[in-house]
Design a protein that fits this description.
This protein has 92 residues and is mainly alpha-helical. The chain is 55% helix and 7% strand. The protein is built from 7 helices and 2 strands. The protein is elongated, with a radius of gyration of 15 Å.
Amino acid sequence: FVFLAAPTEREWRRLVARPQFAALASDARHATAALRSLNDALLAAALSAVFETRPAEEWERELVAADIPCVVSSDGPVEAAVTDPESLARQL
C-alpha cells in the first residue's frame, strides 16, 4: 500500500499530469476538490487500479521525484512506527 497526498489543486494537477493518471484529469467527477471529495469511493477505486500495476516502492520513488507526496505505508501496527528507533531518534 501507498499513502498518497494530493489535497491541493497544484498537487492534483501534478498527479494527473503523469501518464498513468491522465484519465483522471478528463473525468468530470474529479474536476474540483469538492467533486473529488463527493466521489471519493470512485476516485479511490480508480487510483487503486493504477497503483496495483506496480510495487509500492516504485510508486513512491516516481511520485516523490515528481514532487507528489507518496510513501509506502507500513504493514505493522501504528505503535511499531512510533517506537521505531529511527522515529525516536528523529523525535517523530
